[in-house]
Amino acid sequence: MYSLPGADAKHEWVELYNASGQEIDLTGWKFNDGSNHILNIPPENNSQGSIIMPAGGYAILTDSAETFLADHPGFYGAVIDTVASLNDTSDTLKLFDKDNIEIISLSYAKEWGASGNGKSLEKISLASTDAAANWKESSIDGGTPGAPNSVADEANSNQPIENSSSSLPTSSSLAKPVIKPPQAEAGQDIIALINQEITFDGSKSQDPQNKPLAYFWNFGDGSSSDKQKTAHFYKYPGLYLPSLTVNNGEKSNTDTLTITIYSDSIVVSEFIPNPTGNDKNNEWIELYNDSAQTADLSKWQISTQNSKAKPFIFPENSLIAGHQHIILSADISKISLNNTEGSLKLSFPNSQVAQEIKYAKAKENQSIALASNGQYLWTPSPTPGAANILSNTATGTGNYPLASFTAQENYSEPQNIIPANDYNPQGLEEGTFVTAGQITENTSENPPASIPSPIVNKTENASSPLPEQKSNQQEKTASLIDKISSPLYLLFLAIIFGFGGGWALIKIRRKIKNRF
Question: Which among 178, 204, 388, 437 could bridge 369 via Cys, Cβ 3.0 to 4.6 Å?
């Protein structure tokens, strides 16, 4: 039915008839009305019946199974959903099997009949050719979908046919067993990081004849594998479309999946929850790209512990150069960091959390900075846009570039993160940059219980002074050194030693003179 009174959209349909003596599986077949359209397997898109046509059976191809069933209430035959847009004046319709072999080709014109009068175009004799003389508009309105044609030649109606380009394969062509293609199953779509190992498993692929299958994975980045189950990782961020092709020796089938790879080099490197003055105007968040490649931050998100607050989403084409920082001020991000207990989250475009940094009461005008061992520390020296500076009263200060850092996933039980002044682990140099966890405040008067006990080096014994005691001793030593290093003090010492030396020389000369 190609031309209806009024609007044609979704009301057009094409009827197929299996004139062979065996069933025909239409899986993977395509309907062509100028371009190829897959036949959807019922019940997809409200279609009904089976994709397999029995011998002598009918199937309706339509652009809208739901609309067809509404136009033909009580219809119980096979209705297969596809894309069908038939021209009202003339058109060429084709049907291809799963191997892209042309099975049917029919060219019609409105002069054949059934143009805009509510009737269908029917074939008179199924055994004859597709010439215009063998087609006629139906004798009843709406045609006879799923039933013999109303204008069919009784002597030839619905009988097996041969050598007709408009019919499905004959019984002679289907005498040998039909080998059905296997069904490839590549698995679900995956989101991963650069260099993260991904398992590709094709074991859920099946063959209707239970034949052994050969496997071929194309990972979409130039590499491949012939194993059923294998592992692969991607070196660069982006969207990949790997495919799995399975072959049973005669037929093959391919399935694809989508792999989204995000950069693993983007980290929260520093932020300040409680700056001096107005927090709203002075808070900032710093991200760092710890790789030599430019990273795309498009659709990445920054948020806090406040689930009701709107996250900041980086706009399209937000790029950050290799080994560079990007600073988000509060007036741009609209992110408000708590001065009491809070957290900062960095999330992938799919809202999956890449990092979450938790902290207790924020120290005024101190930032939370990332150190090279993956820990976050309080520092009194905020450095937006520059290398972090972490100070320690026991060891001095340092200014070191960020070491290689792999973005950690959100910890279920965050590790404690302590102030830099209270942390000097064995094996770490002073001022080193230190994975997401919980930042806790510490004071000399009342240190919180959550801060770990100080680490004692193997060379020290149990009576060795604690870091706080060491700090007091070193402060006294440093004070004495400062006094000794004073220029006035050195001048005073020089005068004293000069006077003493001169007096000693005078006495020596007198002794020598008296002796001789």
Answer: 388
